[in-house]
């Protein structure tokens, strides 16, 4: 699968780097970008692994599946980089209080948006998901039924056990930050799926 799809992570803070580690563990190439130039990201990217490729933002957003790991208030700036995001899948790994991924979707016209990989703290996300005879669960939610499937397949490739929660306002609400500055009940839950 990795041969016909390419991946990028926008934002190279703790969450972006944790995601990059997941790709590096499986030798899957992923572009990483932030507001900083690629050379500023290079030392950290090299430390994570050779499949983590720093790129300029305009190049990184050419990927098929793009993980958004920027501070929530910056996602709109990224969204303005393309007039249409048609054909791209955005994985919303951010936590914005009181804003569901439906809000994020408005900033990326034409994109298929999947909420995912946001419920684990970066430190946990960075560790190997295959533990204790099982795999660490990542929750996915999307208003686009077909969009979650390739992200679930990628999560499997990365060693996680994806669990689909349904639409943003349904199951997705369990993994979003709320307007009252509280967290959905599944955020920070470090759950495992036993291998059958």
Provide structural commentary.
The protein has 7 helices and 10 strands. The mean pLDDT is 88. With 196 residues, it is an alpha/beta fold. β2 (30-33), α2 (38-48) and β3 form a beta-alpha-beta unit. Strands 1, 2, 3, 4, 5, 6, 7, 8, 9 and 10 form a 10-stranded mixed sheet that branches. 28% of the residues lie in helices and 21% in strands. It has a single domain (7-194), classed as NAD(P)-binding Rossmann-like Domain (Rossmann fold). This is NAD(P)-binding domain-containing protein. Residues 7-96 form the Pyrroline-5-carboxylate reductase catalytic N-terminal domain.
CATH domain class name:
Alpha Beta
End-to-end Cα distance: 24 Å
CATH architecture annotation name: 3-Layer(aba) Sandwich
Q: Would you identify the CATH H-level superfamily?
A: NAD(P)-binding Rossmann-like Domain
The overall number of domains is 1
Net shape: globular
For the biggest sheet, the summary is: 10 strands, mixed
Task: Bin the helical content.
Answer: 25-40%
Overall pLDDT score: 88
Low-confidence runs:
none
Beta-strand portion reads 15-25%
